[in-house]
Amino acid sequence: MRTYQTTRRGMGVLMMVIVGMVLTVIAACAPFIDRATTTVLADHVRHGYPGYGSGDVDNAVTAYLVILAILGALGLAGWLATLWSVRTGKRWSRWLATVAFVGAVTVALSALTIRDTSGEVGLAPLFGWLLVLPLVPGVIVVWRMWRMAE
């Protein structure tokens, strides 16, 4: 499996892993930036629960920030494990990338579709779609790794 480091296609896999890591960090940091600037997440909670006071909205936003930070850390760990397995030529690296990708798809689809008790989508759609961004290099990585195995 050392071909990942020696072939053009293999270098493309490594570059896509790095792109995926960067997009994962952006998706994980965006809600924290939003809290200090545009308050899209707080506005989404306020819209879904008009009876919530500012303290309740702040608590809900904090809960989302914790959840999204954990998801971001797990996503980054998946990318780092994939990068390590690819660089060290592990035979099971394509399986690791595939399992990580399936998990990421599950999380992203859940974030985009799960409704909370207000009947609204629980997570503000902007942040749900940001969770989709790392899936683009993820599908390329998985596809290329399985193609190289042929």
Textual characterization of the structure:
There is one protein chain. By secondary structure, the protein is mainly alpha-helical. It has one domain. Helix content is 80%, strand content 0%. The chain contains 7 helices and no strands. The chain has helices spanning 3-6, 8-36, 40-48, 54-87, 93-113, 125-132, 135-149. Helix 2 packs antiparallel against helix 7, helix 4 runs antiparallel to helix 5 and helix 5 packs antiparallel against helix 6 (125-132). It is elongated and about 60 Å long.
Break the fold down into its secondary structure elements and pairings.
Layout: H1 3-6, H2 8-36, H3 40-48, H4 54-87, H5 93-113, H6 125-132, H7 135-149
Number of domains: 1
Q: Could you tell me the radius of gyration in angstroms?
A: 18 Å
What is the average of the pLDDT values?
A: 92
Structural class: mainly alpha
Q: What is the rounded distance between the termini?
A: 12 Å
Low-confidence stretches: none
What characteristic shape results from the CA principal axes?
Answer: elongated
Tell me the strand percentage band: under 5%
